[in-house]
Amino acid sequence: MSTTDTQPKPIKKSSPFKLVDVETWFNLLLQRIFPVWYCVRYVTEMPMEMLAEINPKSYLSHRWLSINDTHQAAAASLEHAGDQWQDCAQLLLKIYKTRTFKRYLSIRNITAVESSTGDTDYSNILEYAEAECKDIPTYHAEHFDQLSHELFGEQGKRYPFVYREWDGRYYYRNEGEPHKVGALLLHCREKSRDLNVKADIEIQYADLRAVEILRSRYWLLLMKREAAYQIAYLVRSAKIPCQLAEFEWRRSDLVFLVLKKNDYRTAQIVDAIVHRHFPRSVIEWGRYLCTHQVPFRNR
To answer: Domains in the chain, ordered, with CATH?
Structure first.
């Protein structure tokens, strides 16, 4: 019986060089030859996650956006980034200012308090009162008089309040739980009452002269951290200086991309970012500070 010998298939030796995807290779070539053009094209087409609300409503003021905390965090980042960013760090620290006025303040202006141990968040102090202050009687004028005397009736004392000009919000610097404050405000709303409190009102505001100096020298673009890392890599590949600076601790998912206004190439990149992604995914911080202004009035 004759047998047919089967020839083994030749074994292909693997190449020591991996094939590079043509599109990837071409993109790398474009990035190297035309770095600014490539960066502009990239930021125009890249998807960016939305920022969500950076200044949420809450009955607790420490959950709001703090300009002071934001600038302290960003300045601390820039102070460790080298000499060329020290000027920006110093300018940031000059923006947040405070001043104090002695005034009578309508209690109905406040929407929040400074402290509470409650776990549930509410959008304002009235919503808190509706849920947490049901056991405190607020039906009659006697209840109003009693609450107002207990809270704000000490002879000769001025009570501490804060007004923030970048969002027009008042809050009370309370001691202890705000149950009685909430109950008093609930009575004022339901019975159309008001109470003028002898107050020390601290006005927190952004110095617009310092903001304009900052805007004349730098762009601070607020965006998601991952997107900022990608753009910073491309900007640095184009030999353009940029730096990442931290945002406030409440939103560790956000950072500032900081760039200098001394190069037309930088302007091309920033224009592309803002045109494509403002305001849902990118906020130009100097512009934000200039457009969010509710000057204090004795209301």
So the answer is: 36-54+67-95+208-291 (no CATH), 97-206 (3.90.1530)
Give the separation between CA 258 and CA 50, rounded to whole angstroms: 19
Return contacts of 65-68, CB within 8 angstroms, 24+ apart.
Answer: 65/166, 65/167, 65/248, 65/250, 66/248, 66/250, 67/95, 67/96, 67/166, 67/204, 67/206, 67/289, 68/96, 68/204
What the block records as the tokens of 145 is 């008089």
Q: Could you tell me the two tokens for 44?
A: 């125009």
> Residue 134 has what pLDDT?
86
- DSSP letter string, the chain: ---PPPPPPPPPPPPSSPPPPHHHHHHHHHHHHSHHHHHHHHHHHS-------SS---SBGGGS--HHHHHHHHHHHHHTS-GGGHHHHHHHHTTEEEEEEEEEEEGGGEEEES----SS--SSHHHHHHHH-TTS--SSHHHHHHHHHHHH--TT--EEEEEETTTTEEEE--SS--HHHHHHHHHHHHHT---EEEEEEEEEEE-HHHHHHHHHHEEEEEEEHHHHHHHHHHHHHTT--EEEEE--GGGTTEEEEEEESS-HHHHHHHHHHHHHHTTTT-EEHHHHHHH--------
Report, as an integer, the average pLDDT of 289-298: 91
104-133 pLDDT, tens digit per residue, is: 999 999 999 999 998 899 999 999 999 999
| pLDDT-above-90 percentage for the chain | 83
